Amino acid sequence: MENPLPLFPQLNISASKDKPYYQVMTSAIKEESHKAGKPGAKQKRNRLSLLLQKPEFHEGDHLGKPGNLTKAASVSPEEAVKWGESFDKLLSEKAGLDAFTKFLKSEFSEENIEFWIACEDYKKSRSAHELLPKAKTIFETFIQKDAPKEVNLDFHTKEVTRQSVGRPLASTFDAAQSTVYRLMEQDSYPRFLRSAAYLRLLHG
To answer: Any idea where the RGS domain is (predicted)?
Structure first.
C-alpha cells in the first residue's frame, strides 16, 4: 500500500524479511533498558549504534569504515557530484544514504538518520496490526524523554507524536520526521559536503 501522505521519495531501504527493523530495535531496547537509571546512560549507546551496520538495514553495504568513503568502488565522481545538488538527492540514492550514515557515525551523531530510516520503514507497514509495535519501538528509542537515541524535537512535536502513538496512523511520525530532516539538511548535510572523505570521492 502506498503511503497516503508521503513527505519524501520512497527509498530502496528495506529490513530483512526474517527480522523487521522494529524487532531488531525492540531487542536492542531490552538489552539497554536496565541501564536507563544509571548516570550517563545516554552515552552508553554502543549496541544501538551498531544497529544500522547490520545486514538487515544495509544489504550490500561496501562503504567500509565510517569516514572511509573512498572504499566505495561503485561510487563514481559523477554520482558524488549529484549528492551535492540537494539533500533529497543524497538520501534518494542507496550509496548516498550509506555514505551519509557513515559520516554521522564518525561524528557520533547518527541518531537522526537512524530515526529517519526507521520512519521510512514504518510508513511501509502494510497493516494497522504492524503499526502499533513499530510505533511504540520508534517512540521509546528516539522520542520519549531520556530515550537511548533521543532526537532533538520541540515539546509540541513530541507531545503530538506521543498522543498519536496509542492509536498510530501511517502519518504518526510525519511531523517529527520532517523536523529531523530539516535539522540534518541545515546542519549535518553541509558538513558532509565539506568533509575530506566526500571531497576525495569528488576527485576520484
So the answer is: 86-202
